[in-house]
Amino acid sequence: MKKVLMIILGLSGLGLSAQKKWSLRECVDYAVEHNLQVIQNQYSKQIQDVNLKIAQKNYLPSVSANFGNNVSFGQASLGTGSIRNDVFRNNANISADILVYNNGRLEKTTRKTQFDVEASQYDIETIKNDISLQIAQQYLTTLLNKEIVKISQSATENAKKQFDRAKITTEVGTTAQTIVAEAEAAWAREKQNLKTAEINVGRSLFALAQLLQLQDYKDFDVENVQIGDQLTPQLISVDEVLNTAYENQPQIKAAESRIKSAIAQTEVTRTAFWPTVTASIGIGSFYNNLLNTNNVGSQLFYVNEKTIFNQYKDNFGQQGGISVNIPIFNKGITKLQVEQSKVNESIAKNSLDQQKQVVKQNVQKAQFDVDANYEVYLAAKEAEKSTKLAMDFADKSYAAGRGTIYDLNIARNNYANAQGSVEQAKYNYLFSLKLLNFYAGIPLSL
């Protein structure tokens, strides 16, 4: 029973320590959540969110309270003479004011800030898309390098078998010593190629881990996704992809939001031509105390000073008012500011045209790459088929004694290179197709 328990615990430990293999979806989700550039832009959006709240709060009245104390000592002027004036004064008041009219400045400012918030959110989505595409490309590069490792492993195994066969035939005297030497050299070259391929896998995994900004990258690995050999051409037209991209790509939407923001800013600036009406109300009271006497008045007429509470009650007052600020002349600055806003509108519209041009070029390039890479893939498949047939003939000729080991090694190298070309073309086509589908609104996946 004790041994069984130890075996179970051991197997559990192996399961817990098994290396996690990341899928493409996991890599993309992790990157967009932890990438520092995304986090930086999220902070920028938080600032815009606060700006929107500030704009909305401006509809509310401003309320302030004031409480003050003042004391003075010395003589005060009285006619041609002076009088002792040691006084303590205290006052308190509360006032409120609210904007009544400014030609809709608050509403226009709020709308302008809302467009800024939208643009900030689309900026975040744009960065996430850029990172996702980088992750997808590096992920496919890693899978390609893993396939090349498999090809190198197969070539190394064949070279080892060839060396073992040459060693036996040399020992029995049917082949010369140079044959086994060349076979051993070919095996060494294939082992070198295998080691280089394995290092390239590690290098691509390291690059992917850096894109993910992982702290511990040594045990990082990706899933071994099987990519089918029967690839089909894509049938989506460039116009269809462009229409979808113009509607859905966040960099386009961000540019459109900034145009709306610039137009709204022009409207805000124009409100400076109009009067501003502000209403205010307030309440307050005060208390005075002559420090050198408990009375107020003159030698002929004295009045006892009231307590602070009685004075606050008697001196309590209210006030209200409406003020109108009418702009008459400010050196033409408002007019120039409106002109600046109009220029900013033009800049925002030009930025939209630039973004559309970039998207159009990216879609056209992706379409070109898809078509070109598919043709390269078909050609590579034909080359692989031909070199495989040539290698089989070379192997049979060598076994029958009609061919040399040098011819066989060349044929095998050609076949390995053809296999690598097929895998390279396959993954190039796959990435260009994923990129085109991405602009067509299809999420990244394998």
SSE topology:
Layout: H1 2-16, E1 21-22, H2 24-34, H3 36-57, E2 62-72, E3 75-78, E4 81-84, E5 87-101, H4 105-171, H5 177-212, E6 221-222, H6 238-248, H7 250-270, E7 276-290, E8 295-297, E9 302-304, H8 308-314, E10 317-325, H9 333-399, H10 405-439
Parallel strand pairs: 1-6
Antiparallel strand pairs: 2-5, 3-4, 5-7, 7-10, 8-9
Helix pairs in contact: 2-4, 3-4, 4-5, 4-7, 4-10, 6-9, 7-9, 9-10
Alpha-beta classification? alpha+beta
What order do the strands of the largest sheet run in, or round the barrel if closed? Answer: 2-5-7-10
Helix content, binned percent: 55-70%
Tally of individual helices? 10
Sequence stretches where pLDDT stays below 50 over 5 or more residues: 1-17, 296-301
Radius of gyration: 41 Å
The average pLDDT is 84
Gross geometry: elongated
Number of strands: 10
End-to-end distance: 46 Å
Q: How many strands, which pairing sense, and closed or not: the largest β-sheet?
A: 4 strands, antiparallel
SSE arrangement, N to C: HEHHEEEEHHEHHEEEHEHH
Percent of residues in beta strands? 15-25%
